[in-house]
Specification:
The protein contains three helices and nine strands. The chain is α/β, with parallel strands linked by helices. It binds guanosine-5'-monophosphate.
Amino acid sequence: MVTTVTEGIERVVISAEEIARRVGELGQAITADYRGGAARDSRRRPLLVVGILKGAMPFMADLVRALDLPIEYDFMAVSSYGNGTSPGEVRILKDLDCAIGGRDVLIVEDIVDTGHTLQHLLAGLSARGPASLRVCTLLDKPHRREVEVPVDYVGFVLPENLFVVGYGLDYAEVYRNLPFVGILKPAYVREE
Ligand code: 5GP
């Protein structure tokens, strides 16, 4: 029997309409910043927008279309592993196709939680000598931060300690295709 993807959802936390409105605002802010002096590339190559797979995919697709700038885009895939004993360990599953030396780079993330994933990414990318490196995340959980990381653009701050799914965010790889961000019904969360 085919079920629906919304069946497991307890409630919507951020609606598709709220996401669309906020993505438009972020697009305008980023456009204004890079037109107005954030760009540092001396050769004036287009801003490189780097989406972090898989979670940032829907956000990235909407955000790049809200930018009124010449851009290029590329993707990286990373996976955090370990069971909490080594949260700093982040593995690169897919690296960038292009070099970023001297270029303006904007990382697009789905969510910043403890900050370990982003810290690792930023360290690795800074070492390649970009002209500038900024971060845009759809969601932020600042109260969960374990390491300090600079985040330049935030879509929404999650006020409570919620585990959310949808609009790219998964639970066991499912729910990424929801058009909104929501929380799961307890019955749909497996006991660990
Ligand atoms: P960090 O390294 O900042 O702790 O973790 C970032 C990663 O944790 C995200 O890319 C995401 O995979 C996962 N994560 C953190 N909070 C949530 C959440 O509320 N929902 C989902 N689906 N993933 C989350």
